[in-house]
């Protein structure tokens, strides 16, 4: 079998076809999100725990408690519960950092908010508190700080691989 060299101007078409194939294959599956709420430190006074629960339960459906929920870099984070979201939903990460306390809640947007609760737009910024981040890719609510570098890496990898393949085909 003899390979034919692709015309030099077909590279953008090949790249576009590969990108469409990658996007369509990833969107065919259901959206999955990490679903958890971080536990409070044992030193938190009982009255403060009750006050926080009252506030949280008024607006949110709390997912399962997990000690690893607050830290996606923790080795045990991958054991956190995962849940399927309905079509058109988003994964969320809500985080509050106050006086050394870090509180994190993750899940599907439609499952986290109670009916009738108005969704407040808060900036997605891990350096500010509170921070509410939304995303629409499976398990994307683990961390939001490294996502851009990940996509740049994938793009460069695909681009360099295609360039290499085209150069091989042209050499034949």
Quick recap of the structure?
The chain is of the alpha+beta class. The chain has helices at residues 11-27, 46-59, 109-112, 147-171; strands at 32-34, 36-38, 65-66, 82-84, 91-98, 101-108, 131-135.
State the fourth-level CATH superfamily of the domain at 32-147: CD59
Strand content: 15-25%
The percent range for helix content is 25-40%
Task: Output the helix-strand order.
Answer: HEEHEEEEHEH
CATH topology of the domain at 32-147, by name, is: CD59
> For the residues shown, what is the average pLDDT?
78
CATH architecture of the domain at 32-147: Ribbon
Rounded radius of gyration (Å): 22 Å
Quaternary state of this entry equals single chain
Structural class by secondary-structure content = alpha+beta
Sequence of strands across the biggest β-sheet: 3-2-6-5-7
CATH class of the domain at 32-147: Mainly Beta
Distance separating the two termini: 12 Å
Number of helices: 4
Unreliable segments (pLDDT under 50, ≥5 consecutive)?
18-27, 145-154
The biggest beta sheet is recorded as:
5 strands, mixed
Transmembrane segments: 148-169
InterPro entries: QVR-like, Sleep_regulator
Pfam families: QVR
Keywords: Glycoprotein, Membrane, Signal, Transmembrane, Transmembrane helix
């Amino acid at each position: 079998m003899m390979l034919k060299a692709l015309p030099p101007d077909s590279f953008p078409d090949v790249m576009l076809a590969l990108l469409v194939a990658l996007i369509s294959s990833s969107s065919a599956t259901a959206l999955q999100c990490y679903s958890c709420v971080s536990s409070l430190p044992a030193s938190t006074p009982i009255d403060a725990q009750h006050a926080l629960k009252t506030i949280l339960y008024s607006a949110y459906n709390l997912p399962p408690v997990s000690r690893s929920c607050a830290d996606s870099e923790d080795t045990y984070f991958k054991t956190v519960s995962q849940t399927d979201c309905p079509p058109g939903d988003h994964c969320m990460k809500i985080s509050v950092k106050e006086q050394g306390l870090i509180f994190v809640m993750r899940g599907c947007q439609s499952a986290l908010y109670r009916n009738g609760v108005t969704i407040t737009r808060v900036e997605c910024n891990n350096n500010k508190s509170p921070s509410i981040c939304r995303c629409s890719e499976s398990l994307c609510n683990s961390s939001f700080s490294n996502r851009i570098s990940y996509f740049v890496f994938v793009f460069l990898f695909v681009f360099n691989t295609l360039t290499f393949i085209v150069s091989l085909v042209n050499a034949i």
